[in-house]
Amino acid sequence: MDILKNTAHLALSDNGFLFDSRNGATYGLNATGTYLLRRMIDGTPSDELPDALIEAFDVTVAEAERDVEQFLLRLADLRLFEDEAEELGGVQ
Amino acid sequence: MSLTIAVTGLNATDNPGPGVPVIRAIREGALGDCRIVGLAYDALDPGIFMDQVADEVYLMPYPSQGMTAVFERLAYIHERTPIDVLIPCLDAELPAYVRMADQLREMGIRMFIPDEGQLGLRSKANFPKLRNDLKIVTPETFTVTSPTQLANLDENLKYPVMVKGQFYDAHIAYSRMDVERLFYQVRAQWGAPVIVQEYVDGEEFCVTALGDGQGGLVGSVAMRKMQLTDKGKAWGGITIRDAKLDAFVRDTMAKLKWRGPCEMEVMRAKGGKLYLLEINPRFPAWVYLTVGAGRNLPWATVQLAMGESLAPFDPAAPGVMFLRHSFDRICRLSDFETLQMTGEIHRAAEVSP
User: Fold this and answer.
1) At A69, is the secondary structure helix, strand, or coil?
2) In this structure, which of B215, B240, B281, B303 has its CB flanked by the most CB atoms within 10 Å?
């Protein structure tokens, strides 16, 4: 799953505070979430995220895969990466 | 050149008028070199008593007392304190100021406000025209003057629907019975027509914008409310930047050829489509956020009223936040007494820099 299309509107602080400049929403991420999102913003493909998590945290492969999957699903729910182009249909 | 600028809307309660933040913005834009005349409707409007707000204060007759009363009062004020620019800040007074614009200009009082046609076009009752003729995306809207019209709505709208007063007030209705009850309630308070509108679920944004009257956008600042009062008013908010919203605002202002300040309420439906919910023909009470965002729209309004030409502002930066607060202010009884007894306060020497 690769949901990352556009991250220019996201401002992620090292302490896990995330601001979506397109709608003003703010979020607090834990250390794992902050690490994963930072890697995603930096261009790490989704399928490499479990390995990245294993390198940085003391987790098993199964835990890393499960955590990454849940994290990506949560991000998809929040529609943080909606593609700008697909929304433009509303402007007449 | 030091300007004298008159501003209305000095109430600063939990549903505040825009006058105080407009004045704060103007003072910053003018770098302190201006004289502010506060035009108040009530001797207890808190803006009258705040520091660094009004150098002079005059009580005004309510617009409901008629245009002649308002005009005569302004003529009296202008004689005592010549006004260069006047910024009306309240919905209810806009129609009178629009009609008096030419006479006031002849007297030397400049405004930068819409004309009568533009003002009428943005009224909720004209939303069908915006939608059908100007192709501005709005929720489907019906104007209802008689309860017999409500029967037709069932064929055209799905519940829930919004029932709104023509000037103010909005309720959600989940059934025909709700609509009928709200129709009578809203009509009794705000008069006919009552507006029945398609309900759009999604994220709501507020935008304050300044149009040049030729279809151009001088500047805009978009905000998402972070805290609400029980009336749904912003008690905290943050600037946002969204290319689609920017395009929507620009497009709407171009189609309306809007002249002057306004506040647009925009809903982003699930799926991303934007709908114009409302246009208020004046600055919002959160307009000081435009100063925080580096886009001082009230001061730009003064400059435009004075005939200056301005290059359009770039979109404001996102992430500028404001929180409103309240505190008890100790006021001088003598100010209140003077205003009550004479209808005016002159204290330029005390508060001018």
Assistant:
1) helix
2) B240
**DSSP at A16:** S
| Homologous superfamily, domain B140-198 | ATP-grasp fold, A domain (3.30.1490.20)
Chain B CA closest to residue A82? B272
Could you tell me the CA-to-CA distances from A80 to A3, A76, B244, B249 in Å, in that order? 9, 7, 15, 23
Residues ≥6 apart with Cβ < 8 Å to A32: A53, A57, A67, A71
Find chain A residues with C-beta within 8 A of B268's C-beta: 23
Asked if B228 is an interface residue toward chain A (Cβ–Cβ < 8 A), one would say no
Query: Is the CATH number 3.40.50.2300 carried by domain B3-111+327-351?
Result: no
The answer to whether B137 contacts chain A (CB < 8 Å) is yes
- pLDDT at position A7 is 81
- The segment(s) of chain B belonging to CATH 3.40.50.20 are 3-111+327-351
Q: What is the pLDDT of residues A70-85, one digit of tens each?
A: 999 999 888 887 655 4
Instruction: Place B349 in a pLDDT band, splitting at 50, 70 and 90.
Output: low
SS3 category, A26:
strand
Determine contact: B319 vs chain A, CB below 8 A: yes
- In three-state form (DSSP H/G/I as H, E/B as E, the rest C), the secondary structure along B253-288 is HHHHCCEEEEEEEEEEECCCCEEEEEEECCCCCCCH
Per-residue tokens: B204: 């709501």
pLDDT, tens digit (0-9, with 9 covering 90-100), for A20-70: 999 999 999 999 999 999 999 998 999 999 999 999 999 999 999 999 999
Taking the CA of residue A52 and the nearest CA in chain B, the distance in Å comes to: 30
d(CA B40, CA B43): 7
* Chain A contact present for B203, CB below 8 A: yes
Structure tokens at B167: 């000037």
pLDDT of residue B348: 61
Nearest CA to B246 among B274, B213, B212?
B274
